[in-house]
């Protein structure tokens, strides 16, 4: 006999603590009491994420979604829902002013994510063009080639309000329109897939999961602006994305969706791949174009803008992967549909790579205007190990820290700019009280020193000077004047550096100095690192009153610098200690203090 | 395949769509869809794939298709796999290591029961179908 119903009991840690186990046992007992155990399987699941309403019980295949369930409800759940197939209204989730939610998808909490860019990721086999086509793939191209003029395509993009997802937020239609206006024998369409921010992998995942969406979008843009060559610039560190792009391009060519006279029309377009060597600066569009031309990847001053005079001095539309991935849906569902998602001046969604001290790290796509609190606490499940939230770093090394006081601002281009931050490309690194601000900033500055192309002095010298000062502070050798000096250098870089990267390279320093000045001052004046990350400032001592001499710490110490007899208080030789903290985390009696 | 015309493309799309619908109606085939982005692979998706294949062999199942897909976004529970068994709800499993993959074949595919502690859900509704 086969199982007819599945009763899923949420087994996340939060629900475990709110008695999910008790409910599980009660439901199992009831299935036996009411003699339906052969028809029903009771299963513990991973976390449903909706912990404040836990414990949660979901019944399949009906999809009934019960919240705040108690062990006492088990009898009724079996008798009503399983035996009689009736829903129990009082267990459904109710939001004020809304009808009671029956399914999970009816609940606002589960509608926080909207997947437009990632619409096919996790649904199709990225190496099979037929699966893309079955999910309305290349339908937008069809529509464009046979039903729309180039001007109508650009108008649709204008209606959508789509702005560049690489971080700067320039209106996409305007770029296309600039290129379209220029008379030229040759124009280019470029995809910027040189994703390089630490912690960012939105574009890689999009290309790996849905490569055709980018190919289709570039072809559409080619039609709109009058270009017949596209180039995807992608870093060599993304071998799987490159491989899948290559397969996708071969299949599209085979089907006549790339190449001469696409689908029998008189429009021809083809795409090639250029591999970057992984220089961060090549994500900057003028440097990227230099690199494609075979020159050193260094930025050039704007204007001229690439849309007018770009690759080999020809008009060049350059958008990043995420921007491209939006295009086919906009054409299919209409600019108006797209602009109904998100906020008035920032339409659509944004993909974030949510990493760091977060419970549910992952790739998150939310409508613009979602708050940081919703991303970190509702979708991300809050801070790991119950620690306190400290800040979120957005936009990588060009980005800005956002502190708890701004958790409720809507994430969109203009709101972020208004607090001095920026959208950035979508890396979102969550920091908790266990992270040291000086240490994190030093990491970013080290990255900038490595990645500065060296062409202009403010960036080349400025980043190195900032790194040196941060390094001194983290070693307890900072002086009070360092604070003003860093601000001075940072401001100078902002004004004088040649490209966007140099102008923003000091952002991590400037933003943390603004919001976490006290932590810098502690490092300098008191020689103290509150998170214990700056090793030179940390010292471990054993409290002889609490130490029972169990020898656990001495056995854990990798450099054997803890001495003491069994059942006698131990001591740490700080001359030999490497500050690894193994003893601190290993002591069961709280006898070791970090100073 | 020869280069397609507009008509060919439309026909292909319809065929593929009805294939998908028929499969869910007639429901003969079991599908295992494994998340094989860089993230999934780094978390061990290839090992899970091998485990699925050998467990399917060992169980003597002939009607199972194993497929790959991109990243679903659930990085914290990679590797992930979606299991579609006719007559059972489509299920997304997370933290699918080799042992779990074997258990999924034995329990979900053969005994038609769900595997404990590994069930997760898609992070958002499907904008294409809706």
What descriptive keywords fit this protein?
heterodimer; A: 595 residues; alpha/beta; Glutaredoxin; Rossmann fold; Ubiquitin-like (UB roll); 5 domains; 5-stranded mixed beta sheet; 4-stranded mixed beta sheet; 23 helices; 38% helix; 14% strand; B: 130 residues; alpha+beta; 4 helices; 5 strands; 16% strand; globular
Description:
The complex is a heterodimer of chains A (595) and B (130). With 595 residues, chain A is of the alpha/beta class. Chain A has helices at residues 13-17, 20-33, 74-84, 129-134, 139-147, 150-160, 172-181, 202-209, 211-225, 239-254, 285-292, 321-333, 335-339, 372-379, 413-418, 437-451, 457-474, 481-496, 500-504, 507-515, 517-526, 552-556, 582-586; strands at residues 5-10, 40-45, 57-60, 64-66, 188-193, 229-235, 270-276, 316-320, 349-356, 362-367, 389-394, 400-403, 427-432, 540-542, 562-563, 571-572, 592-594. Chain A is built from 23 helices and 17 strands. In chain A, strand 6 (229-235), helix 10 and strand 7 form a beta-alpha-beta unit. Chain A is flat, with a radius of gyration of 28 Å. Chain B has 130 residues and is an alpha+beta fold. Chain B has a single domain, classed as Glutaredoxin (3-Layer(aba) Sandwich). Chain B has four helices and five strands. Chain B has a five-stranded mixed beta sheet, with helices on one face. In chain B, strand 3 and strand 4 form a beta hairpin. The longest helix of chain B has 21 residues, at 6-26. Chains A and B meet through strand 2, helix 4, helix 5, helix 8 and helix 10 of A and helix 1, helix 2, strand 2 and strand 5 of B.
Task: Summarize the model shown.
The complex is a heterodimer of chains A (595) and B (130). Chain A has 595 residues and is an alpha/beta fold.
Proportion in β-strands of chain B: 15-25%
Largest sheet data of chain B: 5 strands, mixed
Q: So, the CATH homologous superfamily of the largest domain in chain A?
A: NADH-ubiquinone oxidoreductase 51kDa subunit
**Terminal-residue CA separation of chain A:** 64 Å
The number of helices of chain B is: 4
Radius of gyration of chain B (CA) equals 16 Å
Uncertain parts of chain B: none
Give the total of beta strands of chain B: 5
Order of helices and strands of chain B: HEHHEEEHE
DSSP E strands of chain A, number = 17
CATH architecture of chain B: 3-Layer(aba) Sandwich
- Structural class based on helices, strands and sheet pairing of chain A: alpha/beta
* Average pLDDT taken over every residue of chain A: 91
Described by the principal axes of the CA atoms, the overall outline of chain B is: globular
Spatially, the strands of the biggest sheet of chain A line up as 10-9-13-11-12
């Amino acid at each position: 006999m086969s199982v007819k119903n599945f009763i899923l009991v949420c087994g996340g840690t939060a629900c475990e603590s709110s008695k999910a186990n008790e409910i599980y046992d009660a439901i199992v007992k009831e299935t036996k009491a009411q003699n339906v155990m052969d028809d029903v399987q009771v299963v513990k699941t991973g976390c449903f994420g909706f912990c404040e309403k836990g414990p949660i019980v979901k019944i399949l295949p009906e999809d009934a979604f019960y919240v705040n369930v108690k062990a006492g409800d088990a009898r009724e759940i079996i008798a009503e829902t399983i035996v009689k197939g009736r829903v129990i209204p009082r267990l459904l989730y109710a939001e004020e002013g809304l009808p009671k939610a029956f399914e999970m998808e009816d609940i606002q909490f589960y509608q926080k994510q909207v997947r437009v860019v990632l619409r096919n990721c996790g649904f199709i086999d990225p190496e099979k063009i037929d699966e893309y086509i079955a999910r309305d793939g290349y339908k937008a191209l069809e529509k464009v080639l046979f039903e729309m003029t180039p001007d109508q395509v650009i108008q649709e993009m204008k209606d959508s309000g789509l702005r560049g997802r690489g971080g700067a937020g320039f209106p996409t239609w305007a770029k296309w329109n600039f290129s379209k206006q220029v008379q030229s024998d040759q124009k280019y369409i470029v995809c910027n897939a040189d994703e390089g921010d630490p912690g960012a992998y939105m574009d890689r995942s999009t290309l790996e999961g849905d490569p055709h969406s980018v190919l289709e979008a570039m072809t559409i843009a080619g039609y709109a602006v009058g270009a017949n060559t596209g180039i995807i610039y992608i870093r060599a560190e993304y071998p799987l994305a490159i491989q899948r792009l290559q397969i996708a391009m071969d299949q599209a060519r085979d089907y006549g969706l790339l190449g001469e006279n696409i689908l029998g029309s008189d429009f021809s377009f083809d795409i090639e791949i250029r591999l970057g060597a992984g220089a961060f600066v090549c994500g900057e569009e003028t440097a990227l174009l230099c690199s494609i031309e075979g020159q050193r990847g260094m930025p050039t001053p704007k204007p001229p803008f690439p849309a007018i005079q770009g690759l080999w001095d020809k008009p060049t539309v350059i958008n990043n992967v995420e921007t491209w991935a939006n295009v086919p849906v906009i054409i299919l569902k209409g600019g108006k549909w797209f602009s109904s998602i998100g906020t008035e001046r920032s339409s659509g969604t944004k993909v974030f790579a949510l990493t760091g001290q977060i419970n549910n790290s992952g790739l998150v796509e939310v409508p613009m205007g979602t708050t940081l609190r919703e991303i970190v606490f509702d979708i991300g499940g809050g801070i790991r190990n119950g620690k306190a939230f400290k800040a979120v770093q957005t936009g990588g090394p060009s980005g800005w820290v956002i502190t708890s006081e701004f958790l409720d601002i809507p994430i969109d281009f203009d709101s972020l700019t208004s607090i001095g931050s920026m959208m950035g490309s979508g890396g979102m690194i969550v920091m908790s009280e266990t992270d040291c601000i000086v240490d994190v900033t030093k990491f970013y500055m080290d990255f900038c020193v490595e990645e500065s192309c060296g062409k202009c002095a403010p960036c080349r010298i400025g980043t190195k000077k900032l790194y040196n000062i941060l390094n001194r502070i983290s070693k307890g050798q900072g002086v009070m004047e360092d604070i003003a000096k860093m601000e001075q250098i940072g401001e100078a870089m902002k004004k004088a550096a040649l490209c966007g990267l140099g102008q923003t390279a000091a952002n991590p320093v400037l933003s943390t100095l603004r919001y976490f000045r006290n932590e810098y001052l502690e490092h300098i004046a008191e020689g103290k690192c509150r998170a214990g990350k700056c090793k030179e400032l940390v010292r471990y001592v054993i409290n002889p009153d609490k130490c029972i001499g169990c020898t656990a710490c001495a056995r854990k110490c990798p450099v054997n610098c803890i001495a003491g007899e069994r059942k006698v208080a131990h001591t740490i030789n700080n001359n030999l200690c490497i500050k690894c903290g193994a003893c601190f985390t290993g002591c069961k009696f709280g006898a070791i203090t970090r100073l | 395949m020869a280069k397609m015309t507009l008509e060919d493309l439309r026909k292909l799309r319809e065929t593929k769509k009805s294939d998908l619908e028929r499969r869910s109606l007639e429901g003969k085939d079991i599908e295992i869809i494994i998340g094989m982005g860089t993230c999934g692979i780094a978390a061990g998706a290839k090992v899970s794939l091998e485990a699925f294949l050998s467990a399917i062999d060992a169980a003597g199942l002939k009607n199972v298709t194993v497929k790959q897909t991109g990243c679903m976004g659930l990085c914290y529970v990679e590797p992930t796999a979606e299991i579609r068994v006719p007559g059972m709800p489509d299920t997304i499993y997370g933290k699918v290591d080799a042992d779990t993959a074997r258990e999924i074949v034995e329990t979900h595919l053969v005994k038609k029961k769900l595997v404990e502690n590994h069930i997760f859900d898609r992070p958002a509704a499907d904008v294409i179908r809706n």
